[in-house]
Design goal:
Blueprint (H helix, E strand, L loop, with lengths): L2 H20 L5 H25 L3 H4 L2 H21 L6 H10 L5 H12 L2 H29 L6 H9 L2 H15 L5 H11 L2 H12 L9 H25 L4 H11 L6 H8 L4 H26 L1
Helix pairs in contact: 1-11, 1-15, 2-6, 2-7, 2-9, 2-10, 2-11, 4-5, 4-7, 4-12, 4-13, 5-7, 5-15, 6-7, 6-11, 6-13, 7-8, 7-13, 12-13, 12-15, 13-15, 14-15
Length: 302
């Protein structure tokens, strides 16, 4: 499919999730099952299949890791300054976190795979792994510093260390390093499961999106939207250009960093003392806006 077709597909499937929830077909239980399948089955299959089939030198690109970290921490610093005058710690913590925390897994990797595939997907899998190791601790630190939460952070850290995406990335890189040949039938099976990652994730996200208009703080939502969906991709483009990264590295890094706010940030906000209504609104607005902004980013790197 073309880039435009891919983005149109994204919007249609996302809307199917919203429609399914409105019609009562996607209940909370069914949505949870779909999310579980995407996170524990489809995404790990995509990560392992994309990395195990490539040479280690092709996947482990230092500029990709350095560029990702540079953009992430720079945008987090910008968000800290932009949202410094928020009226409450609960609102400020959510605004800061959702200005940098990208939806790398449910949207980023499947979209990169649909748009480019091959070595770009393999490098995007590395970004997903590095992002899981970086974004989550940073987000937990922001909530711990700004809010008064009773939730043990140790529990959250234990959960992210057993992340199936991280485990599948380690397995894939190990297979690539050892030159393990994946049997054709296994590779085909992994590919079939991996192809379900994007539609499953999009339907689950669509069914989870909600927007309570009476509780929306438009200036705050607008500032999060600008930083996350416009400033972050622009900074990513400039960073990878400054690092003289090759085309596949630039595509993987910029597109992954151009993703909307992760749905998981709503969960963190709910559990760690953040403003859950604001978090839900930010997820909704950035996800819908990504249909347009991701298309614009693809015009630069595609």
């Amino acid at each position: 499919m073309s880039v435009v077709s891919n983005l149109g597909y994204l919007l249609v499937v996302l809307c199917l999730g919203v429609a399914g929830r409105s019609a009562g077909l996607l209940t909370e239980t069914r949505t949870d099952l779909l999310t579980t399948f995407a996170f524990y089955v489809a995404l790990p299959a995509l990560v392992f299949g994309s990395t195990a089939s490539k040479s280690l030198d092709e996947v482990l690109e230092p500029r990709l890791v350095v560029g990702f970290w540079a953009v992430l921490f720079l945008v987090a610093a910008v968000a800290w300054v932009v949202h410094r005058r928020e009226s409450s710690p609960a609102r400020r913590s959510v605004a800061v976190v959702q200005s940098y925390h990208c939806n790398l897994g449910f949207l980023g990797l499947p979209i990169v795979d649909a748009a480019f595939g091959g070595s770009v997907t393999a490098k995007a899998s590395l970004v997903l792994g590095v992002g899981a190791l970086t974004q989550v601790p940073l987000t937990l630190a922001v909530f711990a510093f700004l809010t008064d939460t009773d939730t043990p952070l140790r529990t959250e850290l234990r959960g992210y260390l057993t992340n199936p995406v991280l485990l599948s990335l380690v397995a894939g890189l190990g297979a690539a390093a050892l030159g393990v040949s994946i049997p054709g039938t296994v590779s085909a099976g992994l590919g079939a499961v991996a192809d379900l990652a994007l539609p499953a994730a999009l339907v689950a996200i669509g069914a989870s999106l909600s927007l309570e208009r009476e509780s929306v703080d438009l200036p705050t939502v607008g500032s999060v939207l600008v930083v996350k969906m416009f400033v972050m991709p622009a900074v990513a483009l400039l960073t990878f250009w400054a690092l003289s990264a090759d085309l596949s590295t630039t595509r993987a890094g910029v597109l992954m960093l151009a993703m909307p706010t992760a749905v998981s940030t709503f969960v963190y906000a709910t559990e760690l003392g953040g403003d859950a209504d604001l978090a839900s609104a930010n997820v909704f607005v950035t996800t819908v806006a990504s249909v347009v902004t991701v298309l614009a980013v693809l015009q630069f790197v595609g």
